[in-house]
Design a protein that fits this description.
With 349 residues, this protein is of the alpha/beta class. It is 27% helix and 27% strand.
């Protein structure tokens, strides 16, 4: 089969490799689309790849090609999304249903070959069937949509409250939608790109605020009557927005950092004191799993994508690029600001 194979830093090649053979308890998926995740970029354009040669890709959709002995939940032809985490299922964290915290896990698309290929082999429990109403492009967004929902579930979320979403990227806009589905009163997206704010409002945000505006904090506080936000979700992994979250929080707020930071973060004494004076609760979120594996995050994405309550907009996609041109896709990431949205790799083009 054909695949995009990483051989070294800046070296990803479209070439032929051995097609995986189906095994007992496993499912061979014919890949349609794979989204390039932000974590894939440093594995090609940096030093984060676990080994060489490697086949990345973990946000994907496709159809079941073959099933191994003992597989009963899916059959050839079924439309499925891929669940990339392969937990050990034996450690204390796994036994408690905290699969994301497993220290002995594997991961499809980083620690074992993934979906930047025509086919990918995975355990039966790692495929999630989805309805015919859901397109394959949308199917490739299951994983980021579940990451967003997991972040919402990391706090004691209640409807009827003011919610701030910091970052209008893919995960941010899905987090915003989950907050809407579960009853937010005022739902405000913060970003530096007006186009992302416009899309946020089209997907259900009550307001969008550009943080480049000199008076953005005054705008933000006016929406809440000066109280601040009961829930703050940081999705950009940016040091600026992480500090901004502390300022936006209301007294007794709940805050979750979903974004993954890439730089050192420091707070002034005054900034850190917000936590004391406001007595807000701060937590983090890692991946998107719960018991029984892979969890209600994946069930709810399949359900709400089907009903249309969790909206999918084509403008979430920046470009669709054939697998044969995968090197061109990663070339785009070398120039900051070039990629605005998700790049989907088409394994059938």
């Amino acid at each position: 089969m054909k695949a995009g194979v990483v051989h070294a830093k800046y070296d990803i090649r479209y070439e032929e490799i051995e097609k995986p053979a189906v095994e007992e308890g496993k499912v061979l998926v014919k890949v349609k689309y794979t989204g390039i995740c932000g974590s894939d970029v440093p594995r090609v354009n940096g030093d984060a790849c676990h080994f060489f040669p490697n086949v990345l890709g973990h946000e994907f959709s496709g159809t079941v090609a073959e099933v191994g002995e003992g597989v009963t939940s899916v059959k050839p032809g079924d439309r499925v999304a891929g669940v990339p985490l392969v937990p050990c299922m034996k450690c204390v964290d796994c036994q408690q249903g905290n699969y994301s915290l497993c220290k002995h896990y594997s991961f499809i698309g980083s620690r074992e070959f993934g979906s930047f290929a025509e086919y990918v082999l995975m355990p039966e429990r790692n495929v999630v069937p989805f309805a015919d109403e859901i397109g394959f492009e949308q199917g490739a967004f299951f994983e980021p949509a579940t990451v967003a929902l997991h972040g919402l579930q990391r706090v004691p979320y209640e409807g009827g409250k003011n919610v701030a979403i910091l970052g209008g990227g893919t995960v941010g806009l899905f987090t915003m939608q989950w907050a809407r589905i579960f009853g937010a009163k005022n739902l405000v997206v913060f970003d530096i790109e007006d186009e992302r704010l416009k899309l946020g409002k089209a997907l259900g945000a009550t307001a969008g605020i550009n943080t480049r505006d000199e008076d953005f904090m005054e705008q933000a506080m006016a929406i809440t009557g000066g109280r601040g936000y009961d829930y703050v979700f940081e999705t950009a992994g940016n040091t600026i927005t992480m500090k901004m979250a502390f300022a936006l929080a209301a007294n007794k707020a709940n805050m979750c950092f979903i974004g993954t930071p890439t730089r050192e973060l420091t707070f002034t004494v005054k900034e850190w004191e917000y936590m004391n004076r406001k007595e807000f609760n701060l937590t983090g979120s890692w991946m998107s799993y719960s018991a029984p594996f892979p969890g209600k995050e994946w069930e709810l994405v399949a359900h709400y994508f089907k009903t249309g309550d969790l909206k999918f907009d084509e403008s979430l996609i920046f470009k669709k690029i054939p697998l044969s041109r995968i090197a061109d896709a990663f070339e785009m990431y070398k120039t900051p600001g070039t990629v605005k949205g998700k790049i989907l790799i088409d394994s059938e083009a």
